[in-house]
Amino acid sequence: DTEVTQTPKHLVMGMTNKKSLKCEQHMGHRAMYWYKQKAKKPPELMFVYSYEKLSINESVPSRFSPECPNSSLLNLHLHALQPEDSALYLCASSLQVGAMGNTIYFGEGSWLTVV
Amino acid sequence: GQNIDQPTEMTATEGAIVQINCTYQTSGFNGLFWYQQHAGEAPTFLSYNVLDGLEEKGRFSSFLSRSKGYSYLLLKELQMKDSASYLCAGFDRGSTLGRLYFGRGTQLTVWP
């Protein structure tokens, strides 16, 4: 089972709303990731959690706030977003961060539209 | 740092063979991934090379030459469902705690 589950699949929110994206994996992976992907562009790394601790923040604006409540769950809290933040948000996980042969598995993504 | 380059678009016919190339310039590089992404869907893992040579998985094969900074994905017996974007991604273990850097993707269109 190589499944990473994301909810919701689609989200429309206003610029003053607060919402959250959720991600779950039960593969025993200890590294979890958030990527952002705009149309016809490659995924761009936002955050990396390793053993439930934030290890990489790619200079993401503070209106995006990640949270890792436990080793299976990863959230992305959204507040005061801008229309240009509309994108596909991908959660991913891997056995560990930085290990050779460390395949990263992606969830199906959450399509976010900010109006 | 990472600088991964791959062609933007390719076309081929059903039943044919296509090779998608990927070149990179990097230090601290520890392997190369290939992902397939259909429109509107998430990337799915195809293959991973950490050593030089060819890795074969059914209709898909991937090759890596670390000295040349070069990889390719070979798709045989093409099917219509293979129409997708193919992303080359380099894994930099160095001091960056394992970032995966993606190329811009190659959009493959398979014609009947």
Give an overview in words.
The complex is a heterodimer of chains A (115) and B (112). With 115 residues, chain A is an all-beta fold. Chain A is built from no helices and 11 strands. In chain A, the strands form 2 sheets. In chain A, strands 2, 4, 5, 6, 9, 10 and 11 form a 7-stranded mixed sheet that branches. Chain A has a 4-stranded antiparallel sheet with strand order 1-3-8-7, with no helix packed on it. In chain A, strand 5 and strand 6 form a beta hairpin. The relative contact order of chain A is 0.33. By secondary structure, chain B is mainly beta. Chain B has no helices and 11 strands. Chain B is globular. The N and C termini of chain B lie far apart (40 Å). Chains A and B meet through strand 5, strand 9 and strand 10 of A and strand 4, strand 5 and strand 10 of B.
Concise description?
Chain A is an all-beta fold and 115 residues long. Chain A contains no helices and eleven strands. Chain A starts with a strand and ends with a strand.
The pLDDT mean of chain B sits at 89
The overall strand count of chain B is 11
Number of helices of chain A: 0
What is the strand content of chain B?
over 45%
Oligomer: heterodimer
Strand content of chain A: over 45%
What is the alpha-carbon Rg of chain B in Å?
A: 14 Å
Strand-pairing-aware structural class of chain B = mainly beta
Coarse morphology of chain B:
globular
Major β-sheet of chain A, in short?
Answer: 7 strands, mixed
What are the low-pLDDT stretches of chain B, counting only 5+ consecutive residues below 50? none
From the N-terminal CA to the C-terminal CA of chain A, the straight-line distance is: 36 Å
Largest sheet of chain B: 6 strands, mixed
DSSP helix fraction of chain B: under 10%
Most extensive interface, chain pair and sizes: A-B, 27 and 23 residues
Distance between the termini of chain B: 40 Å
Number of helix segments of chain B?
Answer: 0
